[in-house]
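Working notes for the structural subgroup meeting. M.R. asked for a predicted model of this chain before we commit to crystallization trials. I am recording the input and output together here so anyone reviewing the notebook later can reproduce the run.

Input as submitted:
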Amino acid sequence: MNLYTFFCITFLLVLNLQAYNKKDLQSLKNGNDCIGCDLKNADLHGMYLAGFNLSKSNLSGANLSQADLMYSNFSDTNLSRANLTQANARGANFQGANLTKADAKNMVLKKTNLKNAKLINVDFEGARLWHLDLKKTIIKNCNFKNAAIGASELDGLDLRNSNLQNTILWKSSLKGTKYKK
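Returned structure, recorded in token form:
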């Protein structure tokens, strides 16, 4: 195999690894639920996905900024490195989801289930997080600067390595929570 062939094959393999499944994306755009879909790095900016079931899907690196995700099901979904800025996720289910390194600036999460979710290095700056279920949620190194967390149970969480600068903690339970003072 010559060097040119090697580079062409390598390029095609890398391109294939970064692409989403076009059939899955078209199915979603046609208004169908997309359980177990491959939407890695897909551009879903501003899409209306309210009430959709995207459980067990791969949305890593996907652009969901300004998307309407109200009452959608993202349980056990990979949303690592996803762009969720200004997304509306009221009433959504993220139980068991992986949001590692997601950009969730100014995101709205109200009555959202984050039970057993993985929130590592997530940027929630300016986000509004109300009435959240955070039982057994892993939260590490998250940025909650200028965020508002209200009426949520943060009991037993370790927030010592998270940024809580100017964070509003309104009527939230912090029993046994570890955080920097």
